[in-house]
Amino acid sequence: MDSTQIIGIAASTATGISLLPQLIKIIKEKKADHLSMGMMGVLLCGLILWILYGIFKEDLIIIISNAVSLLLNLATSILGIKYKQKSQGLKAV
């Protein structure tokens, strides 16, 4: 493994887990009022494109890191939608 691969793995790991603190916060607080769903949508599209790019390039580092990131971001988006709906329901009462 050369230094380029090590840098790629480190960068993809950091990028892949970057939204983990947000996900943990949403799970703990059961609130997602400040989560931008527009940003999440764009990010999810970008991750899908990165996975496709990795498939075309046959680059497992790109595929795996972006797939992990996609899963974390999907979980964040799903919980964001769930808790935003709950908070909007509470405000309407």
Question: What is the CATH class designation?
Answer: Mainly Alpha
Topology order in helix (H) and strand (E) letters: HHHH
Provide the low-confidence segments as ranges. none
Number of domains: 1
Proper CATH architecture: Up-down Bundle
Q: Overall mean pLDDT score?
A: 89
Helix content: over 70%
Looking at the structure, the CATH topology is Monooxygenase
Could you describe the largest sheet, including whether it forms a barrel?
none
Q: Would you mind describing this structure in some detail?
A:
The protein is mainly alpha-helical. The chain has one domain (3-92): Monooxygenase (Up-down Bundle), CATH 1.20.1280.290. It has 4 helices and no strands. The chain has helices at 3-16, 20-29, 37-57, 60-92. Helix 2 packs parallel to helix 4. The longest helix has 33 residues, at 60-92. It is elongated and about 50 Å long. The termini are far apart. The model has no long low-confidence stretch (mean pLDDT 89).
Characteristic terms for this protein:
93 residues; mainly alpha; Monooxygenase
Write the SSE topology.
Layout: H1 3-16, H2 20-29, H3 37-57, H4 60-92
Helix pairs in contact: 1-4, 2-4, 3-4
In short:
The protein contains 4 helices and no strands.
